[in-house]
Amino acid sequence: MKKKTFAAIDVGSHELAMKIVEVSPQTGLKVVDHIRYGLDIGTESYKTGKLSYEHMEELCHVLREFVKIMQSYKVEDYKAYGTSAIRELDNTIIVLDQIEKKTGIKVSCLSNSEQRFLDYKSIAAQGEEFHKIIENGTAILDIGGGSIQLSLFDKEALVATQNIRLGVLRLYEKMRYIDVKPSQYQSVLAELIDTQLAVFKKLYLKDREIRNLIVVDDYVSAVIKHVYPEIDKKGFVERKKFLDKMKEMQIKNRADVAKQLRIGEENVPLLRISSQLIKSALEFLGAEYLWVPGVTLCDGIAYDYAESNKWIKPAHNFEEDIIACAKNISKRYQGSKRRGETLEQICLTIFDSMKKVHGLGKRERLLLQIATLLHDCGKYLNMVSVGECSYHVVMNTEIIGLSHLEREMVANIVKYNHEDFAYYDEITKDGGIDKDAYLVVAKLTAILRVANGLDKTHKQKFKDVKTNIHENELWIQVDTAENIALEKGLFWNAARFFEEVYNIKPVIKQKRSI
Amino acid sequence: MQEKRNYGAPENFSNRELSWMAFNERILGEARDKTLPLFERVKFLSITASNLDEFFMVRVASLKDMVDAGYSKPDIAGMSPKEQLKKLNKATHSLVSLQYSTYNRSLVPQLEQNGLVIVEKHEDLTEEQAEYVDQYFEENVYPVLTPMAVDSSRPFPLIRNKSLNIGALLCKKGEKGEEEFATVQVPSVLSRIVVIPSKGEETVIILLEEVIERNIQKLFLNYNVICAHPFRIMRNADLSIDEDEAEDLLKEIERQVKKRQWGKAIRLEVEDGVNKRLLNILKEELDVEEDDIFKINGPLDLTVLMKVYGLDGFTHLKNPPHEPVEVLEFNKDEDVFTSIRRQDILMHHPYQSFEPVVEFIRQAARDKDVLAIKQTLYRVSGNSPIIAALAQAAENGKQVSVLVELKARFDEENNIVWAKKLEKAGCHVIYGLVGLKTHSKITLVVRRENDGIRRYVHLATGNYNDATAKLYTDLGLFTCNEAIGEDATAVFNMLSGYSEPLNWNQLSLAPLWMKDRFLYLIEREKKHAKAGEQAHIIAKMNSLCDKDIIVALYEASSAGVKIDLIIRGICCLKVGIPGVSENITVRSIVGNFLEHSRIYYFENGGNPEYYLSSADWMPRNLERRVEILFPILEKNLQEKVRHILDCQLKDTLKAQILQPDGTYDKIDKRGKVLFGSQAFFADEATKLVKEAKKQVTDKRVFIPETKPEGAEEE
Fold first, then answer.
1. Which tens digit of pLDDT belongs to each residue from B541-567?
2. Model ipTM value
3. CATH number of the domain that B599 lies in?
4. pTM for the full model?
5. Partner residue facing B453 (CB), from A15, A32, A38
6. Which among A3, A35, A72 has CB closest to B371?
7. Domain limits at B418?
8. B466 and B350, same structural domain?
9. Distances in Å between the alpha carbon of A204 and those of A153, A219, A324, A335, B383?
């Protein structure tokens, strides 16, 4: 099969980057060109919320050059994403429209969680190394300008992820306002970082044993091969070696470090902050090995595109990560594992038997599954307003792999499982959800409510339920000797909403085959 | 630290200008070598003259600027600019006198014996000859002359840099008034050699200035010409500071710019025996110092001898020209890409033809699978087939990016013309980089093949100039090695203004960190030596004057590394200093071809590494230019490179060895096999091709043609 050529463009906060990637099922992804152009739009965007004329011109000029390069490689398609600098503009939509009109390049804006997920995908796209490494306890430290993202693996699935506002540029700015002697700089910086990491450790680490730390960043990644000439091509370093070298770099003056590592002098302080973040993470997590694969967002964009177009086989089951993550959240808020599983089973059974009716796909099924797992996480906060509280728990917990919109959908499904359903005008008034999403929320809420109704007693009486559609009825067949009078009695409320959404009436059919 | 300071002491270095003088003396040595064909000797003498001119315009001018700016920082050898000028002056005067004694005592008589008569003084012309010459003057010369007189109303005219002029003292006819000064430029539009018809077998020539001198009276009809003598000046005018100088100097000069006398004459050449009053006028008007006056016993500006070399006939007195032979790895039946895919290909110019490089770009221009062609161009020949091919490629819809270096010395105008041509054809032209000269020689062809994108790279030690490729010895490599291809792409991204790649595979780039790389490689040899392993560096380049590198070499030498250097030109390193450079040898090869390739060999504990580069070990190459160092990875090509180095190291004919006192000695040939590496390479290349051809024709077996491509099966 002929290789396909694709371009991934990252409109970052301090750099514009494009990777030209060749894709084929046999050889996977191969980067044939990596073009980077330093352009700091972040500082301005964070400060003023606008993009100056000069920066806009320069940005568009480079993108037009990118177009020429894409043409020269005859790329089949491209994807361009803006990250935090674009996201934090007041007029993102206007700016992106201008860019498209001036350059022909359609740039989309990534939310933090989408961006982190792509970073994560770029690591997973490394294939074999990645799978080998996550066989043991592993954490990912994704260092950005404004924040870092720490994620933990358990049994090859990513179970927890947390955004912490300890980005390199943010720390750099913060340190400028703290008046410290150069000799104290590093220890004050370490303190800033460590207090936050301590919280993370307490919340998430528990008894997990972390052996490996995977790092994605812009500074250490760029120099790691110069720092350790003996490093293998894959980029693995022992913790001690890393720390020793780091110490050495801290003693030297800026100019010497810059010269030795072949980087600009202005990047040296940022490199030091990035190194300190890694050092703190290594220490808090107790990791023994460091893996710096040197991937960038562009790798993730390319991988994501190739995978979703079925140019390549998926390198990792990311849905399992999302489910594992949801289970972990449920556990933290003391949700009942068994009830969650029962609901999950019932919901998915209903969902699957109604494919023709609801017309939803795999992704929506996943959302439903997550909603079942998180259906009552809010009760941890308050047993009365479970719906509202659950909504907030979901909205404030990161689930890597879910887009912001998807997270909002899950939160709403969970909420309206408990509360009266709010209709379109009401539910969209805060702007989080659009029409399509609204319909999905309604459809999935209806299913979850039925399932919830069937298990009102939390006794898992309907565990082995079978469902099928009979004309205008959904027959829910349950094989149990137990008394289900309560469920039947309370069922009408859930059934009514279901009927409203699907125009199909759910009916419970009991069989006693004992 | 103490140790280091020791190696870096000024007494351990030679001054680069004096070392350059020694280089020019070595070339002069060739002109004096009686074993060489006579006309080759004439050519070498001409080269010494044009070299000296360039040296004055660039280096001496720089030193003068330094002195004028009050800049007194000592050089690598601890000499202040003033001291350098003083010593240089002495060296220049003795060089010039040697040039002319060579010319007068050796070359002119022998040329005459061999049938080329140079009429040195117009007074020596026979009547018949004089008649011809006068007529020639009337018809050809007189119309283009512009005589200029000086008096109270007409100021001293501007004498053009490097131009040849005749100065005269005049006196108005019938008046016993003051002497007046007048000057006329010997027109550069006319050939300086005037061939006088002769009845015999011999060729008779006279120089144009003699013809004018003879007829000078015709220019000043109302005057009596008291005397007339040719003179020539060199100015430091309209020249930017040489890139070799330190940046702090540039700042100094900027600050002092008003004090600087632009266009000040830095050398005045006059005929020996010139009229004293005339000389005084010149000296005063041109503001030349006594030391900078050169009284010449013979014709001024010996670069004219290149024209003498080019006179028709006399082939028996010249080296038979070497025809570059074809490169066997390329096969006429297949495209160049197929050949390169089969193996990396190393070419040795001028023994081997430069044609494959031109062909590479030509084929890339019309190959349907080629997506892009990128190239850096430094000095290109006048009617370059490469430029034509690049323009063609752009017209064929390929993406063509060309970096044209406009700062190439003396070539600016030339470069702009064809850069514009390329732009018109649709190429993306980058006009050099701010603050850096792009000296690297690299071409990248990106091709989309069935199994994905493949990059073909040509890297070389010499320019993409098909004319000089016949005269300069250079190496060029064709490869489609993926790691090198990736780096090549990164190089062009950087040249287009994009950031440095996250990592490099095989190439080292100046000014980024090539120097560090060299220092690392030298240091590594030192470590091997200290560990008791074999340690050997062989480096071939044009000039060596980077202090850090030299100190590193000294350290390596004292640690026991054997260091053999083949340096054609300037060498600031000193050999034979006890405890410093006892393990270092330096040889210079000055031959028919200009040694130009840069080769670096490191023994690496029995795991040798070979590198080629566009860069010398000079600060300007390592710090102020874009240069590329590339490795030779294939075993068989490494052997080829080693063979080249070995041959040069055993050269007994053209090699001269640097002595501890800074002089160069020819090799004592007694008991040694006479071996000239250049001649050997030429022979070897020719033989190789002959043998390969013979193998094909010698076979007494018929080879049936295989089915021609595209033939359908029935």
1. 999 999 999 999 999 999 999 999 999
2. 0.76
3. 3.30.870.10
4. 0.82
5. A32
6. A72
7. 336-505
8. yes
9. 11, 27, 14, 17, 72
